[in-house]
């Protein structure tokens, strides 16, 4: 009886160990099958393999973040969208000022002096009054403020007051580019100097 029980226990142990071995073998076969299936799937469809890797979702998220952060188009600034002025205000203002100055200038004249005769204490001076403008002059005035000189007589000049001398009837009108030639005499002091020009003003 005891021998029969020992044989039964031995058989039970053998069956238990066999069952454990079968379970381990089945697990290994399953793992091998899964690995082989994954390898075949990666070989036939690489995109699925890349999608399964951890780097795939991170790369996609980074790309989406970059696309979202980049603006569709730069907004147009109000300064650039506004119409630019057609001309330079400074240049236009300068041109207008020049035109206005030329219009206001009107007739112009110059008065040149040249020594005609010199004596010990007096001189005779020729004057040339010229119209340098574009319009006729109808009357003019010169200023004979001469250091070391005192006008004593004049020809073709009318003494107005002080150092001011003006035209007389026959030489009042001067056409553009023309001139008239009055003269005067003056007493001089030591060291006198005759200027080349004196102020001239159209009437």
TrEMBL record:
GO:BP terms for this protein? Answer: carbohydrate metabolic process
What are the Low complexity biased-composition ranges?
60-105
Which InterPro entries did the record assign? Answer: CBD2 (IPR001919), CBM2/CBM3_carb-bd_dom_sf (IPR008965), CBM2_carb-bd_dom_sf (IPR012291)
Which positions fall inside the CBM2 domain?
Answer: 109-200
Q: A Pfam family name for this chain?
A: CBM_2
Region feature Disordered, mapped onto this chain: 46-105
Citing just one GO molecular function, the answer is: polysaccharide binding
Q: What protein does this entry describe?
A: Cellulose binding domain-containing protein
């Amino acid at each position: 009886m005891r021998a029969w029980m020992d044989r039964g226990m031995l058989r039970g142990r053998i069956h238990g160990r066999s069952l454990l071995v079968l379970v381990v073998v089945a697990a290994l076969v399953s793992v091998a099958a899964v690995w082989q299936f994954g390898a075949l799937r990666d070989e036939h469809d690489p995109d699925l393999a890349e999608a399964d890797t951890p780097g795939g979702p991170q790369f996609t998220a980074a790309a989406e973040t970059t696309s979202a952060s980049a603006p569709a188009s730069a907004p147009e600034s109000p300064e650039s969208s506004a119409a630019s002025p057609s001309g330079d205000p400074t240049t236009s203002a300068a041109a207008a000022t020049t035109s206005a100055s030329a219009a206001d200038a009107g007739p112009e004249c110059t008065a040149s002096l040249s020594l005609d005769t010199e004596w010990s204490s007096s001189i005779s001076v020729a004057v040339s009054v010229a119209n340098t403008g574009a319009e006729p002059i109808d009357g003019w005035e010169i200023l004979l403020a001469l250091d070391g000189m005192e006008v004593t007589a004049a020809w073709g000049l009318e003494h107005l007051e002080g150092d001011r001398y003006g035209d007389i009837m026959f030489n009042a009108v001067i056409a553009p580019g023309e001139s008239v030639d009055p003269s005067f005499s003056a007493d001089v002091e030591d060291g006198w100097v005759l200027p080349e020009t004196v102020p001239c003003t159209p009437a």
